[in-house]
Specification:
Helix 1 packs antiparallel against helix 3. This protein has 65 residues and is mainly alpha-helical. The chain has one domain.
Protein backbone atom coordinates (compact mmCIF):
# COMPACT_ATOMS: atom_id res chain seq x y z
CA UNK A 1 0.00 0.00 0.00
CA UNK A 2 2.67 2.53 1.01
CA UNK A 3 4.96 1.50 -1.82
CA UNK A 4 2.21 2.17 -4.36
CA UNK A 5 1.47 5.56 -2.86
CA UNK A 6 5.12 6.60 -2.84
CA UNK A 7 5.62 5.30 -6.40
CA UNK A 8 2.59 7.27 -7.57
CA UNK A 9 3.85 10.47 -5.94
CA UNK A 10 7.29 10.04 -7.51
CA UNK A 11 5.67 9.32 -10.88
CA UNK A 12 3.57 12.49 -10.64
CA UNK A 13 6.68 14.53 -9.77
CA UNK A 14 8.54 13.08 -12.76
CA UNK A 15 5.60 13.87 -15.06
CA UNK A 16 5.62 17.50 -13.88
CA UNK A 17 9.37 17.71 -14.52
CA UNK A 18 8.95 16.26 -18.03
CA UNK A 19 6.18 18.73 -18.86
CA UNK A 20 8.31 21.55 -17.49
CA UNK A 21 11.12 20.54 -19.86
CA UNK A 22 8.64 20.54 -22.75
CA UNK A 23 6.96 23.88 -22.10
CA UNK A 24 9.59 25.95 -20.26
CA UNK A 25 13.08 24.47 -20.66
CA UNK A 26 14.94 27.48 -19.27
CA UNK A 27 13.17 27.34 -15.90
CA UNK A 28 13.47 23.53 -15.84
CA UNK A 29 17.23 23.82 -16.30
CA UNK A 30 17.43 26.55 -13.67
CA UNK A 31 15.46 24.35 -11.27
CA UNK A 32 18.18 21.71 -11.61
CA UNK A 33 20.98 24.32 -11.23
CA UNK A 34 21.96 23.90 -14.88
CA UNK A 35 22.39 26.34 -17.70
CA UNK A 36 20.34 25.79 -20.84
CA UNK A 37 22.67 25.17 -23.76
CA UNK A 38 22.22 26.94 -27.08
CA UNK A 39 21.95 25.52 -30.58
CA UNK A 40 22.15 21.79 -31.17
CA UNK A 41 23.34 21.21 -27.62
CA UNK A 42 20.16 22.79 -26.29
CA UNK A 43 17.98 20.59 -28.48
CA UNK A 44 19.81 17.52 -27.25
CA UNK A 45 19.64 18.67 -23.63
CA UNK A 46 15.88 19.30 -23.80
CA UNK A 47 15.20 16.01 -25.60
CA UNK A 48 17.37 13.93 -23.27
CA UNK A 49 15.93 15.35 -20.06
CA UNK A 50 12.34 15.19 -21.32
CA UNK A 51 12.71 11.54 -22.33
CA UNK A 52 14.46 10.72 -19.04
CA UNK A 53 11.68 12.19 -16.91
CA UNK A 54 8.94 10.59 -19.07
CA UNK A 55 10.71 7.23 -18.73
CA UNK A 56 11.03 7.60 -14.95
CA UNK A 57 7.38 8.61 -14.79
CA UNK A 58 6.26 5.54 -16.70
CA UNK A 59 8.29 3.28 -14.41
CA UNK A 60 7.02 5.02 -11.27
CA UNK A 61 3.40 4.72 -12.34
CA UNK A 62 3.94 1.15 -13.47
CA UNK A 63 4.97 0.10 -9.96
CA UNK A 64 2.07 1.97 -8.38
CA UNK A 65 -0.54 -0.16 -10.19
Amino acid sequence: MWARLISGIIGAFMLLQALNWLFDPSSAAAGLSMSLLEGEGGNTQIGDFTSFFFYCRSNGCHWSL
